[in-house]
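User: Structure please.
Assistant: Input sequence and predicted structure:
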Amino acid sequence: MNLFIKFKQFFLDRSGSVYPIEKKINYIFHNKDYLNQAFTHKSLDTSPRNNYERLEFLGDAVIDIIISRELMREFPEGDEGLLTQRRASLVQKSFLAQIGQLLDLMNYLKIESSVNLKIEKIAEKQQANIYESLIGAMYLDGGLEPCRKLIIDTVWAHKEEAWKSTNYKGKLIEYCHSRNIDNPIFLVKDITGPDHFKTFEVQVKIGVQSYSSGLGTNKKTAEQIAAQMALEEMDVTL
């Protein structure tokens, strides 16, 4: 049987008219091709226009803008450092993977059997990727509003769980030790603002490699954000 036909039958429910995932996300796709693409791994189709990677790229940006807007509403007096830290916690791969698991997205993933999804890190990455690709597909199909509704009902609804205190600086040091690489150095790049409302900019350097700066209203917060960014840029599962 043709792979596409098998995949199509897998998605259709008993009525033959609605894809089960559409019921979960409360959104009906006008163009089912977007939905099929959102769950197609490159191991089955290497064409950028047929697998989920381009949609994942788009979905990542959509999630960022929706979460950023909600954070500005939630913290009307919050500075850039606070907003950045809170957003980073909500869009990190490990948290998006939990959201993907909540929606049972792996049940719909079209992937070669040679990809070992029993390996936790691989499975977690796929969960996060297809949540992002689903958001990207929804954006192309219906615009920003249906994406906003799903993000609010999933990511934003579980924000408190994502905001539980995490010692990213400790995780980064531990990671460096486990890989036998240089210890991270935290450099204060800049301090701006009046004495009563300073903003600290801290950058992580590991060996010769420098990573994105973290901003915070105190040095400790800025270090934590910088450490989290370094871990993400190193593709370390958080």
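The domain at 3-162 is CATH 1.10.1520.10 (Ribonuclease iii, N-terminal Endonuclease Domain; Chain A).
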